[in-house]
Specification:
This protein is α+β, with helices and mostly antiparallel strands. The protein contains 3 helices and 6 strands, in the order H-E-E-E-H-E-H-E-E. The strands form 2 sheets. A 3-stranded antiparallel β-sheet has the order 1-2-3, covered by helices on one side. A 3-stranded antiparallel β-sheet has the order 4-6-5, with helices on one face.
């Protein structure tokens, strides 16, 4: 998994919400206040609406959400834009030197 160490450091400080089907975890989202520290959906469950459900859950408990995403991850950028996130800035991620978009969603 990319950035495993970073995720491992962040998640003890985050609220983690899990999407389960039966006894199997299909995905999860980690929130630090209004920041989405990570959202993950298992490979076989991708494109089945789980990511959207996790985002909608987070929108139900927060009035504003923020996240950072690599522009080269066009699939993720499009997903967040479909979920009404807007690009609010661009910066270079410290650990990788990669460009990142900052994106934000606010309840209307």
């Amino acid at each position: 998994m990319d950035h495993f160490e970073i995720v491992q450091e962040m998640f003890p400080q985050a609220e983690v919400y899990v999407y389960e089907e039966g006894a199997s975890i299909q995905g999860f989202i980690g929130l630090q206040e209004g920041y989405i520290a990570g959202i993950f959906v298992s490979g076989e469950a991708q494109s089945s609406g789980i990511g959207r459900r996790l985002i909608h859950f987070a929108k139900g408990i927060r009035s504003q959400l923020r996240l950072d995403v690599y522009p080269k991850n066009t699939r993720a950028v499009r997903f967040y834009q479909r979920e009404s996130f807007e690009i609010s800035g661009e910066h270079t991620e410290q650990n990788t030197g990669e460009r990142e978009y900052s994106m934000i969603w606010k309840r209307q």
